[in-house]
Amino acid sequence: MSTPAAIDAIAGATPVERLRALRAAVPGRIVFTTSFGIEDQAITHLIATAGLDFELATLDTGRLFPETYELWDRTEARYGRRIRAFQPDRDALEAYVGSNGVNGFYNSIELRQACCAIRKVEPLGRALAGAEAWVTGLRADQSGDRGAVALAAWDAEYRLVKVAPLFDLSRDQVVAFAEAEHVPISPLHAKGFTSIGCAPCTRAIAPGEDERAGRWWWEQGAKECGLHVDGSGRLVRDDDARAAA
Ligand code: SF4
Fold first, then answer.
1. Best of 106, 110, 119, 196 for a ligand 1 pocket test (most atoms within 8 Å of beta carbon)
2. CATH assignment, 4-219
3. Is 198 a known active-site residue?
4. Which end of the chain, N or C, is less packed with Cβ atoms under 10 Å?
């Protein structure tokens, strides 16, 4: 079982070095969750081309853009790797839509969070069950809320090591990497979608806006869905790992 002590062994100057260090430090299952944004596509490319035996998973909320499903298919074909889908619990979803309507998430923050809990957070728990490490495409400069994202941290919620191999890269660096390596990316990025989530909850951003401003644009405050926050709503970060050690 991984412990916070493994975090110190996860290092490296480049993202692929960090992924290799993670593989060496953690003997058990490592899960990479992708939502097919450009950061995730870069990581899929690195995992596949380096031949790392990480599990690739995605949360198929049922409300993704058609472009995302097309890119999912194209990515599997390009890399010869299956990306396992985790879908919402049918009974929970039927009850939610039955009570709140198909777009009930627009009506309040609580209903939006309840939708994310059913369509994303619960399936994520199944995706990570039994894993020792979780790889994400988080970057520190995606938003003010993500400014404290670390390369590796102990996630007390899921009891595993959470790794963000692109944590210190800028968006421009990721874009340059994707172009140089001919990584398949979503056509939505060229239309102003910097962060891509569910179709009804994501819009393009205007020049100068925060990268995640297009997520749940009708709400004020932090732009997170519950996947990367602890029980108190804070983003999991490196000092949490030290506290848990
Ligand atoms: Fe539901 Fe929107 Fe959250 Fe997707 S992003 S799970 S549609 S509230």
1. 119
2. 3.40.50.620
3. no
4. N
